[in-house]
Design brief:
360 residues, mainly alpha, three-stranded parallel beta sheet, binds tryptophan
């Protein structure tokens, strides 16, 4: 078996520039480089429901949004399998078996789960499904024998749990599952701050630029972006600390963008050097950033527009992807059941042996 990439997102909201720079862009590159034998990208609706059990409509609506984001960002159903987690019941089955191989206290130690429990005020009342989601995530990964999981640092604890479960499964039963490794983002800016310059782009803080935002909306948001400590005039030295405009330029601008939109400078380092000396207005920086973002978003918007006009085709793609993914997971489950000695009906020798044992 070759190299297999697998990754996904909880469909709890539209994807934004943070998702793009942190993962989507990389996925498209990986898909196009073709160095892997297979690539699976999925919407983790089952996982999303673990902390949204009372709001299934939110997940339902965001399946379409995220599918449109995937396709418009350039994920190509000819090159990667796009699917929906809940359409693969084999994952629930594998989760059940993996749960026998891990202790409650081991799951409790997971730092990502701990943070999430605090964030969601679950301390007094943790839904069991939510508590167990790291095991379900291990099933997501191992059912597809994924070798490589592109994800953020916060997913490393899930990968650790997955590897432990694989080792235990293979040791107790038979070497069926594959130990995956994480593939961390390599960009300089892997955690894009919000337009307010705060920690992280997040829907609840209302500081996101979405892949689906039109030109007008992007400009409105860029105009309001924070640019570090205030200055009385543009002649004063500019400040790069907590300057969201420059963090975004760091993440998105290229020398080609400078050649096209701001030829006075060859690259960001030159602009920065001048900015901290003074004489560069924040408005001008914002206009440049706006051009950079729109240049990147224009082809994404065009693709999105096309798919939006053919939503049934989007669901066709997801349905076909889910069928393909399910066939793959079903194959793994055959091996899992065999290894676990629960393949009663397909093991003729077992039936014969039982027959001999009871025949007088
Ligand atoms: N936990 C991931 C997130 O919150 C989503 C996810 C579920 C995932 N299963 C996965 C990511 C398997 C990678 C591999 O974004």
């Amino acid at each position: 078996m070759g190299k297999i990439i697998l990754t996904g997102d909880r469909p709890t909201g539209k994807l934004h520039l943070g998702h793009y720079i942190g993962s989507l862009q990389r996925r498209v590159q990986l898909q196009n480089a073709g160095d892997f034998d297979k690539m699976f990208v999925f919407m983790a609706d089952v996982q999303a429901l673990t902390d949204n059990a009372d709001n299934p409509e939110k997940i339902r609506q965001n399946i379409t949004e995220v599918a449109l984001d995937y396709l418009s960002a350039g994920l190509d159903p000819q090159k990667c399998t796009l699917y929906i987690q809940s359409m693969i019941p084999e994952l629930a089955e594998l989760t059940t078996y993996l749960m026998n191989l891990i202790s409650v206290s081991r799951v409790q130690r997971n730092p990502t789960v701990k943070t999430e429990i605090k964030m969601r005020n679950f301390e007094a009342n943790i839904p069991l499904g939510f508590f167990c989601y790291p095991v379900s995530q291990a099933a997501d990964i191992t059912a597809f024998k994924a070798t490589t999981v592109p994800a953020g640092e916060d997913q490393e604890p899930m990968l650790e749990v997955t590897r432990e479960l694989v080792r235990r499964f293979n040791q107790i039963y038979a070497p069926v599952l594959v130990e995956p490794e994480i593939m961390l983002p390599e960009n300089v800016v892997c955690r894009l701050p919000g337009t307010d310059g705060k920690e992280k782009m997040s829907k609840s803080l209302g500081n996101c630029i979405y892949l689906s935002d039109d030109e007008k909306t992007v400009w409105k948001k860029v105009k309001k972006m924070s640019n570090g400590a205030p200055r009385m005039s543009m002649e004063e030295p500019g400040h790069l600390e907590c300057n969201a405009v420059f963090t975004y330029l760091e993440a998105f601008s290229t020398p080609e963008d400078f050649a096209e939109f701001w030829p006075e400078f060859q690259n960001l380092d030159e602009l920065k050097a001048q900015y901290v000396k003074g004489g560069i207005g924040d408005g001008t920086c914002k206009k440049f950033l706006n051009s950079v973002l729109n240049k990147m978003l224009t082809p994404i918007r065009a693709r999105r527009h096309e798919y939006e006009q053919d939503i049934p085709e989007v669901f066709n793609i997801l349905k076909k992807g889910s069928e393909e993914a399910r066939a793959f997971a079903a194959q793994t489950m055959d091996e899992v059941r065999k290894a676990m000695r629960i393949d009663y009906f397909s093991d003729a020798a077992y039936i014969e042996e039982q027959a001999a044992k009871f025949k007088i």
